[in-house]
Design a protein that fits this description.
The protein is α/β, with parallel strands linked by helices and 310 residues long. It has 2 domains: 131 residues, Periplasmic binding protein-like II (D-Maltodextrin-Binding Protein, domain 2), CATH 3.40.190; 140 residues, D-Maltodextrin-Binding Protein, domain 2. Strands 1, 2, 3, 4, 6, 7, 8, 9 and 11 form a 9-stranded mixed beta sheet that branches. The chain is elongated, with a radius of gyration of 19 Å.
Length: 310
């Protein structure tokens, strides 16, 4: 177990030092989520997406394209969606991009119903969704991070201990090396992509015992930071100094350890469309081209999103 409290600023300094050692063109080797064979190959699809999208010019506006792009879905992808929307509208001022953050499943349903052009999902598609004609495009990667209240003395957990906490068989932090304090289990609502990926990692689909089920990443952060004994799970990119980050199986979640697979609790960020990109409106097609431009990659990195290396 680590004996030091970790926050995002500490982790980013550590990650920056290590990232300088990376070879250009590193390939994701992130392990599959436990018990979810459907996740096989999403890293390769991210690399393929990056290699096949055209890149628009970076420095001037383009008024030849107009229309609207409507996104809906994952609250975990809010930073990603907002950064892309702002950058794209600066580049294409005749196009309006809107985004609603209603949860992954709701975003996919909105695409199927024709209410959104793009569904933002922090999980991969289910077979029934694919059969209905929805197509996924893996655009980035995220680590799901275990966070606790700042007063908690525990600095790391094993996967087995995390299972016990979320099953309800471990009810006091004293049982995992902490103080004599009740564990308050915080999670996301049903339909959340973050919840689905987290429970799949533990092999506890619909088997967790929550004290609170909250409908956004921000709500989980706020509840954990204000509740003694609380534990929750959030996206890596939203971390700040209001919570403590736990290591998992002895590995601290950093951009480097998430990217290379040493931190095992990760998932793809997916944008879904009804049909292939080529079947979408010109504005939506251009949005996906823009997504892999150097300009948008810089915006996403600034927003804390983990994108593939070239």
């Amino acid at each position: 177990m680590y004996q030091r409290k970790w926050n995002k600023s500490t982790m980013k300094r550590t990650a920056l030092k290590r990232t300088r050692l990376h070879l250009l063109g590193v390939i994701f080797v992130i392990g599959l989520l436990a018990g979810t064979g459907s996740h096989r190959g999403w890293q390769e699809r991210l690399a393929k997406f990056s290699s096949t999208q055209g890149q628009p010019a970076q420095s001037s506006q383009d008024i030849s394209i107009n229309g609207k792009v409507v996104m809906a879905g994952s609250t975990s992808m809010e930073s990603l969606a907002n950064a892309l929307a702002e950058g794209f509208m600066n580049r294409y001022p005749q196009v309006t991009v809107t985004a609603e953050f209603t949860g992954s499943s709701a975003g996919i349903e909105a695409v199927l119903a024709g209410q959104a052009d793009i569904g933002n999902s922090s999980r991969q598609l289910h077979p029934a969704e694919q059969a209905a004609g929805v197509v996924e495009h893996v655009v980035a990667i995220d680590g799901i991070v275990i966070v606790t209240n700042m007063e908690n003395g525990v600095t790391g957990l094993t996967r087995e201990q995390l299972c016990g906490i979320y099953q309800g068989t471990i009810r006091n932090w004293q049982e995992v090396g902490g103080s004599n304090e009740a564990v308050v289990v915080i999670g996301r609502e049903a339909g959340s992509g973050t919840r689905e990926a987290f429970e799949a990692y533990l092999g506890l689909e619909d088997g967790c015992s929550y004290a609170n089920e909250l409908n956004s990443t921000g709500a989980v952060m706020a509840r954990v930071s204000s509740t003694p004994g609380a534990v929750g799970y959030v996206s890596w990119e939203v971390l700040d100094d209001t919570v403590s980050v736990l290591s998992l199986e002895g590995v601290i979640p950093t951009e480097e350890t998430i990217r290379d697979g040493r931190y095992g609790l990760s998932r793809p960020y997916v944008m879904v469309t009804k049909g292939e990109i080529e079947a979408q409106s010109r504005a939506v097609q251009e949005f996906f081209r823009y997504l892999d431009s150097e300009e948008s990659r810089a915006l996403l990195k600034k927003a804390g999103v983990i994108v593939s290396e070239r």
